[in-house]
């Protein structure tokens, strides 16, 4: 089988799994589905073997839900359980429930500890224990320790496999150790230097190690300034440190500064992606848990909550309109134009809010510049308020042949855009100050402000100007 | 000066630069500002020397704009020009204009090629050439080659410093080469294997190299399956490959498969962050170019465009209201309630659109599942439409003591939520199909649909039901 064409064949297979756009190729999925139907393990293994774990994950997701577990059983050793870290949570949970415990234990055994933790952490305590018990003791203890750290902490993200050496070793000794030792992590970029109490002293990247004189002691080579993270740090904090200092990996220490693991950038990329996802979804009124593979009922329920809150605010805004029923009846043009004032204010406020929420999320906005940004936003609101006030006033005057109505809407628009700018920046800042997530909750408050202020300003000014009541 | 306390002192200084929240400490910034005012280069250097390039960048941003260039002059060698890759574009551009060309040339000389390209690429051709001419020939040629690749391409992102060896070398020979050669990249994780034509054959991570027998040939050790990217690939495509396959670095090849550079994950993290930023901002109606350090006039102008488009759609929606002026006058309750129908539809549609836009951005939504997701969203719209129709109908009936109005708003709400769901998914899909960025333009279309359908459904059904006209 291993002939000169083997590499080309495998390249062809990789190409065939994804089409030119990089999407999963439907005919490949069909071929796998056919093999599953036929119970043809050889064919399934032949198709899946060349696939990267990420592509195995993508394949699982592309298959109908009811054949996924059967594929994994057919594949045996060929299936890389790391693929399960690449699929949607709901897909993974369903699969883990369906698969026999022994299969899961066998699969988890081969994983790096961070991947194993990722798969285990969402299981309920009972299933978790059952799988842990099936694992070799050293692995079980390491995983249990990671799982004991809080959810979304550095301790959950780290892998416990690492290389640590004492400070009095030389570069040559360390290289010889790496050369001679069987039981090393699958891949690593650096070695750590620890004291007898396993406290972290410093770290040396492999490229530095191989370029150093063999007789140099590692404590003279090591970098002591590296950013370390604490096992209990939140993963967002960890991501911030990685991003800020362009790290590729970072040692994780416990409360006694003892080295307990290492976090690598690929896990952090997932966190960054997740965070961005949460921000986008929260601003759009969607739960961060929602996934493309969720069922209709799950989605409808989770979105209902946000829409319900919005309905209440919509009624509040309408109640303001209701206060002016008499005026609306006397001058129906007011009813026709009022939504324009509210909508324009809402959009301007959303712009400000978006900038504020994102800047807070990436920590670009803080006590140091909050005042400056608030002033700036107010000015932007004022300038655009004047611009759109005049524009809307002009169009409204022409439409209803009455410059009075143009004047009224012009002033109302100005007021609402300034109010929107202030709301758009102060509401996220206030929510952040009180520990709420501004991405999730700012939207409701902000549009309530612009709806209420918009209707109130427009109809209130109209009442005064036209002497309606 | 170099005593046992040195490390502690530098740790204290790092601590002092950021407060407990990780924000830049104001007193540190003040101390630097004082040193600049006094023209005290020693003090400025003492303060800034221990800072990481990223923190140097943060310091630059925290200082008033008019003293930044003076600080860089005072710092001389102590200032790391890589810090300029960490600041907002507008800050960097201003600084590069203010600084004498010689200072910039000296600073760029010490950078890795990817950082140098990042700094040079936004300058106008003339300034760029002036700086390039001041650089040593080899560096100039390498930078020029990178700059010749299109904007936002892999060729711009890559660094050209790398280690490549011929396939017939042994592991021992390679390690000896690394050990003996002075002129190596500042840091690297892997060595590449190339043929005499510099075509990429494979790659070996350093950890594998040090663990291999010294006599093994590198072409027996190398990994040939690694994902490579082409220099002309778009950076988003590159980011997608890194994310999908959890890469730490990837070789960059030209059209003849010759190795021309290497992209490391830290640059890709910036791309991922940028992309997420663009999505968030686009959905909020803010230009992706907008930065927190921009001036009021710049921001007001850039936001005006989006608000102007929104104003037009608001007038279109109001024109629909205008069609029913007579009915609104006869039944003012319709004017009070109409915005609720429009707003609820808008929010539901925004939820769907957010999910669709994000899924398109991360390539989770494609031809393979577009139909399924559209059907799912329609069902969600139907379910929530029934729920909110009944709820709103009930409240409206009680408010206006008329079950007829409740019935009308119930049906209108149902219609609008289904329309919103369809608009929320089909509009982004259509925009994507025609090559437009769905994040930027979906919002306007979607809310126009829900405003127009909301007003039309509610007032149209009311007209029929109550026999108004």
UniProtKB/TrEMBL annotation, chains A, B:
Keyword terms of this UniProt record: CBS domain, Cell membrane, Magnesium, Membrane, Metal-binding, Transmembrane, Transmembrane helix, Transport
Entry keyword Repressor: no
Transmembrane parts of this sequence: 304-324, 379-399, 405-431, 443-468
Keyword Nucleotidyltransferase found: no
MF terms in GO: magnesium ion transmembrane transporter activity; metal ion binding
Membrane topology field: Multi-pass membrane protein
GO cellular component, one term: plasma membrane
Gene3D superfamilies for the chain: CBS-domain, MgtE N-terminal domain-like, SLC41 divalent cation transporters, integral membrane domain
Organism superkingdom: Bacteria
PROSITE patterns, per database record: CBS
CBS domain mapped to chain residues: 222-278
Pfam families: CBS (PF00571), MgtE (PF01769), MgtE_N (PF03448)
Intracellular or extracellular location(s): Cell membrane; Membrane
Major localisation: membrane
Quaternary context: Homodimer.
Record family assignment: Belongs to the SLC41A transporter family.
Annotated function: Acts as a magnesium transporter.
NCBIfam families for the chain: mgtE (TIGR00400)
Name this protein carries in UniProt: Magnesium transporter MgtE
Species, as recorded: Alsobacter soli
Taxonomic placement: Bacteria, Pseudomonadati, Pseudomonadota, Alphaproteobacteria, Hyphomicrobiales
Gene (name only): mgtE
């Amino acid at each position: 089988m291993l002939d000169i064409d083997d590499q080309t064949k495998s390249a062809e297979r990789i190409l065939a799994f994804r089409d030119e756009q990089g999407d999963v190729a439907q005919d490949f999925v069909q071929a796998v589905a056919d093999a599953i139907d036929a119970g043809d393990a050889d064919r399934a293994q032949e198709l899946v073997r060349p696939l990267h774990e990420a592509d195995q994950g993508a394949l699982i997701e592309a298959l109908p839900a009811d054949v996924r577990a059967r594929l994994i059983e057919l594949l045996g050793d060929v299936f890389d359980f790391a693929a399960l870290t690449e699929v949607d949570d709901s897909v993974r949970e369903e699969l883990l429930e369906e698969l026999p415990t022994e299969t899961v234990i066998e699969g988890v055994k081969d994983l790096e500890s961070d991947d194993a933790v990722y798969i285990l952490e969402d299981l309920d305590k009972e299933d978790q224990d059952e799988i842990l018990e099936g694992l070799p003791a050293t692995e079980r203890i390491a995983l249990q320790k990671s799982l004991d750290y809080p959810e979304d902490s550095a301790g959950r993200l780290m892998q416990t496999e690492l290389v640590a050496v004492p400070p009095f070793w030389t570069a040559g000794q360390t290289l010889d150790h790496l050369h001679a030792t069987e039981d090393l992590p699958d891949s690593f970029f650096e070695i750590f230097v620890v004291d007898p109490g396993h406290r972290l002293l410093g770290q040396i990247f492999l490229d530095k190690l191989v370029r150093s004189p063999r007789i140099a002691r590692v404590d003279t080579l090591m970098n002591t300034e590296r950013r370390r993270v604490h096992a209990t740090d939140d993963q967002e904090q960890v991501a911030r440190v990685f991003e800020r200092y362009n790290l590729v990996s970072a040692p994780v220490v416990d409360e006694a500064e003892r080295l307990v693991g290492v976090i690598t950038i690929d896990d952090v990329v997932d966190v960054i992606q997740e965070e961005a996802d949460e921000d986008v979804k929260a601003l759009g009124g969607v739960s961060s848990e929602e996934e493309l593979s969720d069922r209709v009922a799950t989605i409808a329920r989770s979105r209902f909550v946000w829409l319900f809150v919005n309905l209440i605010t919509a009624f509040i805004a309408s109640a303001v309109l209701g206060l002016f029923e008499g005026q609306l009846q006397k001058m129906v043009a007011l009813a026709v134009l009022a939504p324009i004032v509210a909508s324009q204010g809402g959009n301007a406020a959303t712009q400000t809010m978006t900038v504020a929420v994102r800047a807070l999320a990436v920590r670009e906005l803080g006590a140091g510049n909050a005042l400056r940004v608030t002033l700036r936003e107010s000015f932007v609101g004022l300038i655009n308020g004047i611009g759109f006030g005049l524009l809307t006033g002009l169009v409204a005057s022409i439409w209803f042949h009455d410059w009075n109505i143009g004047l009224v809407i012009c002033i109302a628009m100005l007021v609402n855009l300034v109010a929107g700018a202030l709301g758009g920046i102060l509401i996220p800042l206030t929510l952040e100050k009180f520990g709420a997530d501004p991405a999730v909750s700012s939207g409701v408050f902000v549009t309530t402000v612009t709806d209420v202020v918009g209707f109130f300003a427009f109809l209130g000014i109209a009442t005064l100007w036209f002497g309606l009541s």
